[in-house]
Amino acid sequence: MITLFSYGPSQNAYKVRLLLNQLRRDYRTVDISIFEGESRTPEFLEKNPMGTVPVLELEDGTYLPESNAILAYLAEGTEFFAKEPLERAQTLRWMFFEQEYVQSSIATLRHRTLTGKLDFDSPITAERRRLGERVLTALNNHLGNYDFLAGNRYSIADISVFSYGGLADDAGYRLADYPAVKDWTSRIRSQSKFLDDIIPYSVDPYSSRELG
Ligand SMILES: N[C@@H](CCC(=O)N[C@@H](CS)C(=O)NCC(=O)O)C(=O)O
Known about the structure:
With 212 residues, this protein is of the alpha+beta class. It folds into 2 domains: 2-78 and 196-203, 3-Layer(aba) Sandwich (Glutaredoxin); 85-189, Glutathione S-transferase Yfyf (Class Pi), Chain A, domain 2. It is built from 7 helices and 4 strands, in the order βαβαββααααα. Strand 3 and strand 4 form a beta hairpin. The radius of gyration is 17 Å and the shape is globular. Glutathione (GSH) binds at residues 7, 10, 12, 34, 39-40, 51-54, 66-68, 99, 211-212.
């Protein structure tokens, strides 16, 4: 059976849990306490040299880190990842967008806000906020014309961007100000086997620590 090395409140791990649920795949979970340093042990760094979760362990013992690579691997050959080259490239385009822009704005602001680590006055916070506004505006413009991000059907591009983008309210934004994005989150929530199980940072007494 495949194994997901995970940290409950990680929305990068949530992406994978959501897809696994929608694929009706069995898997086991190993929790890694990232704020206690469990993702930086020599043993874990052998699984992922960057020391981050999620990591998927395949049946043959191969480790696959990076949430979007895991989504692409699991979704191959399914309705969640197009075969046609251009639609496939558009799917990847939004997954790269997610890593480049959503992670460094909304995801980081959300993490720091919910764990009490946000420095409200720092220039880097202001920069992240501006980037997050650009992200939400770009999504709102695109989703004003399409129901889903790529190929106009639900795919791993939506799973990827939704996982933090859909929680922008937690990062100090108002999704209500981006109505096309808000409507898209409702369409995602209505997908078959949607997983409504966001785990709050408050379950982890160590989450106010800085990551190594
Ligand atoms: N690009 C990576 C980012 C993963 C990531 O940043 N994971 C965080 C949790 S959401 C983590 O494991 N942090 C632990 C650390 O940096 O030590 C992905 O998409 O999987």
